[in-house]
Design goal:
By secondary structure, the protein is an alpha+beta fold. It has two domains: 190 residues, no CATH class; 114 residues, Chitinase A, domain 3, CATH 3.10.50. It is 49% helix and 13% strand. Strands 1, 2, 3, 4, 5, 6 and 7 form a seven-stranded antiparallel β-sheet that branches. Helix 1 crosses helix 5, helix 2 crosses helix 8 and helix 4 packs across helix 5. The termini are far apart.
Length: 334
């Protein structure tokens, strides 16, 4: 039975997608894994995609180009994947399904079988499909690990393309199934170690940078420091009531920034105020919003331990990140 597209490396990618840097395995181990992955891709090109009649030279060139220079977070890859999805569902799958029907149904009247749908035309040429598939393969290899040995990958693809039968795949692979699993597990362990080390480094760097930033803010005129470490400044005195309990509900307009000045949240941009109980937000807000009266405006500088701590929040708020909020208190509900 023909293997599914990228099936043999899917588990590896799932284990490795979160790694930020390549693993620290030895050259021989990486070389072996690189060859095994390339062999799988070559096998799929040779047998799994035979009916697509791809230009394998274009496929190989696209693999190399993306692995060397492609941006895993770039817009180009997003567009390639969108185009690939369109090709798969509108062209490739209908064509291969019809091809399968024609090859498996035995009939004395072959003319009654459904005709093959169009696979290639001006919109999707054979060259376009080859380039899309090659780019996706290159991105797949790069997502598994950024220290794959490209020469070994490409050599194995060539070897896979030379196979005369599907049964020969066993003779091509350098490792048996158990050995391959062990090699991938070692790769995963190294990647996890690198990711943890990078996270610990980022935690410490953000913590120190946030402390230094808050120390400078504390020197600013009108800034008050609370016992908890929260800093605030009343930018406009209010005349209404003041929240006193954690169960109070406040209606506010606000803008949130990181210490680098990046706006990550703003009710002004959404064009509407927001209401919430003070016991339903970060500690810095719970404490800080009791320092200003209705109609007033306050700026809060919140240490990470009173914000989102080591976990951070979303893409914009890093772990151990101190934050700044400018808040207008519209109404307090007791």
């Amino acid at each position: 039975m023909k293997k599914m597209f990228f099936a043999a490396v899917a588990a590896v990618a799932a284990l490795s997608m979160t790694a930020c840097e390549g693993a620290g395995l030895g050259k021989g181990e990486i070389d072996t894994i690189s060859y095994a992955i390339g062999a799988d891709l070559g096998f799929n090109l040779n047998f799994g995609m035979t009916d697509l009649d791809l230009d394998n030279e274009i496929v190989k060139d696209a693999i190399k180009k993306f692995y060397k220079n492609g941006d895993m977070e770039g817009e180009e890859l997003v567009q390639v994947r969108q185009k690939m999805t369109e090709f798969q569902y509108t062209r490739m799958m209908p064509y291969l399904n019809a091809k399968h029907v024609q090859s498996t149904i035995v009939t004395d009247c072959p003319d009654t079988l459904p005709a093959l749908p169009t696979l290639y035309d001006e919109e999707f040429t054979r060259e376009d499909a080859s380039r899309l598939i090659g780019t996706n393969m290159g991105a797949w290899v790069k997502s598994i690990d950024r220290e794959m040995h490209l020469k070994s990958v490409m050599r194995a693809i060539e070897d896979g393309l030379k196979l005369q039968s599907e049964e020969e795949i066993d003779s091509l692979m350098l490792l048996n199934t158990d050995q391959m699993r062990d090699a991938y597990m070692a790769l995963q362990a190294e990647q996890q170690k690198k990711a943890m080390e990078a996270r610990e480094k980022a935690l410490q760097e953000n913590l120190e940078a946030s402390k230094a930033w808050l120390a400078e803010v504390e020197k600013m005129e009108g800034v008050v420091k609370c016992e908890s470490g929260l800093l605030y400044r009343i930018d406009r005195e209010g005349t209404g009531i003041q929240a006193t309990a954690d169960t109070n509900i406040v209606e506010v307009n606000y803008e949130g920034k990181t210490r680098t000045g990046k706006i990550f949240d703003s009710s002004y941009e959404r064009g509407e105020s927001i209401s919430f109980p003070l016991n339903g937000v970060i500690k810095g807000w719970t404490e800080g919003m009791k320092c200003v009266k209705e109609g007033g405006q306050i700026t809060l500088w919140i240490p990470s331990e009173l914000a989102y701590g080591e976990r951070g929040a979303g893409r914009d708020i890093a772990p151990n990140e101190a934050l700044e909020f400018k808040v207008e208190l519209i109404k307090v509900t007791e």
